Amino acid sequence: MRFILSTRRMLGERRTSRRYKAMASAGVLAVAMTAAETTAYAQIGGVDTITVTARKRQENLQTVPIAITAMTGDMLEQRGAENIDDAARFAPNVAIGFASNGSGGGSNSDIFIRGIGQTDFLITTDPGVGLYIDDVYYARSIGTILDFLDVERIEILRGPQGTLFGRNTIGGAISMVSKRPADSFGGEIKATAGRFSHYSVTGSVDLPLSDQLKTRHTIYFNTEHGYTDRINVGDRLGDDEVIAGRSLLEWTPTDNFDALLSFDISHKEGGSANTAALSYDPTQGLAPLWQGLVGDPMMITTPVIVNPGNPFNSSATGPNVDDHDIWGVGGTLTWDLDWVSLKSITAYRSMEAEFSRDGDNSPVQYIQTHNFVDQNQFSQELQLSGDAMGGSLNWLLGGYYFDENATDQNDVRLASGLFDALEALPGAAIYLGGAPGTTCADFGIDPTVVCAGGIGNPVNAGFDVDFDIYNDIDTKSIAFFTHNTLDITDRFSISGGFRWSKDEKTYFLEHLRVNSGAPVIPATTVEDEWSAFLPKASVGFQATDRTFLYASASRGFKSGGFNGRPTTTAEVGSFAPEFVWAYETGVKTEFFDRRLVVNTSLFYYDYKDIQLNIVSADTTGNLVLIVENAGEARTIGVEAEFEARPNEYFSFDGGIGFLDAEYNELNPGATIALTNELARSPNWTANLGVNFEYPISNDWIANIRGDWSYRGDHFIDSANTPELYQEGVSLFNARLALVNDSGGWTVAVYGTNLTNELYLTGGVSAVSSFGHVEGVFGSPRRWGVSVKKSF
Known about the structure:
By secondary structure, the chain is mostly beta strands.
């Protein structure tokens, strides 16, 4: 591991040349292809056109001045993508993990796009990439590794999207769109069975009640076993049982009015994420003190069990739960008048989640947390849009209101037993900050020496790190925005707009020490507010009928927040927002009657006041947790994506992303170094898919698809903990399907992670305070069979 890190530092001076070579290569790819077309190509269907709504109106993906990866529901099914983590592997410079920062919740996401995101799951910190379902913003990262439920398409928008999408889209946005009710009766049912006792059933049905009133209903059931055995308890980490449903009602009483009402619900019962202890240093932080006072008298040789040979075997006995109940209602009303269109998007969402983790991988209560989160949100968006100047100007004005309340009860158990052991000592005998084995007796009567130990000694309470934590946050946000596109000519257009946003947050906290009864933080209320002006401008040029060029500049914003884990009153307070200026240019091209589509983009970011979660220790080895605005980073990168259909049997798709992100300035007091790498920011990401379709009879078609995805070397955490360094990993998936269109049948066998790669997808380090590092591993090899019937 050290050799790898040293090699990377030595190669750092070569980054600049590598960076520009990568950009040059992408540019050559975009312009070097000939536009020659032949009759033979025209006789074969081209690459499908995908319509997106990234600018709040329906547009051809190839004429939108934004870097977007869009996939339809059928494309997701062929790729074996069951949730947003799976889908992200098919988009360049996108990295998604789960259960990071020690949450233990396998449904808790941390999403990064082009090096911008957030690893923390606490309600006091906002995500850096916005997640939207049917234009409704999901404010928390908790519970967002969602299984796809009746998805029409997913759009992954790279770069700041604050003008139109709104809150906390500084890195980008992921927008999922549900299938709308059909005009006639129909539907489908799909059943799947696979490895790890995986069984799922999905059913959807369109039930039109009249020509003006249509409905669609979907229900989903999934159960599977986890892949980590807890050998001392007899259960597993990662067990999962979900039942979910969604209903949509669309009412169109007149030609110019449409109402879409929705209701969704999801109930999950499961086990904690597949966590393993990666390392333990008994000389760090409170580890030697705990061992001497608690471990040795109880004949415990170590409180942390590291099992590198088989991380899917755990000796943990602590809490093992990852449950949630999530539901929401929403309504989208659209009036189309002669000169203007009015849209109203109203939504209410509620979430109750419980998740835990036993991070020490042992029967000892040394590193354990258990969270209970209750969150609800209301949002209202209004949009006015229309055309002017004879149709040359497309304009949009809007307003947004958001109101959220969230509470988090967190039972934290760290180095348990230490306080009681200190109280049991005959007197003040432990010198704080001394060398191992040093006692107060070694210092005589020096009055400056602070010693722990002895019943009633108030110093002992500082070593009671079993916490009961209560956090409550109220957020109110308002915004006004506009986005306008003016066609200067038939081929050249300019777009511009801005968003003004204001967030007001009130944070109440009360943190208590369990054994001593002393407060960590007494009942305290903190308030803060932030506002931002976010402009965006772009130009688009249709150079030829099949070549679209664009360039854009935009400012992104992520709201400030509060340190939700203070261990002293000095650590209570707010941190500032993040800002980024993003500059991007791109080329979207089509060749050979859309037999080949190639899109490339080049970007540069100036990223400021980066919010980082820092775990450290004070001079006594005790825990210190802060959130800091660390400094600035410069990010530059290039992306290319393609789809090709050379003949009626074969199609290919893929993408590649290069990212060079590095800190270039640190704020005073920052605890990281300029040489640190940004979390979840691999230099290279890539994917390639091959699809083969062949009719094997008059009724049946064989469909074979293989996919490769790659994420390069990167660190999971901002501290660049060596154990949380993930080397580049390739994943291979495959699917063989037999399709009978006339009968509506599809029978498929599939496999994911076919080479059974072992790789980290999350983790946290507390090595300086407890000597401990833990990680969360991705799924091993899976396989299964599915049967779908459409009617």
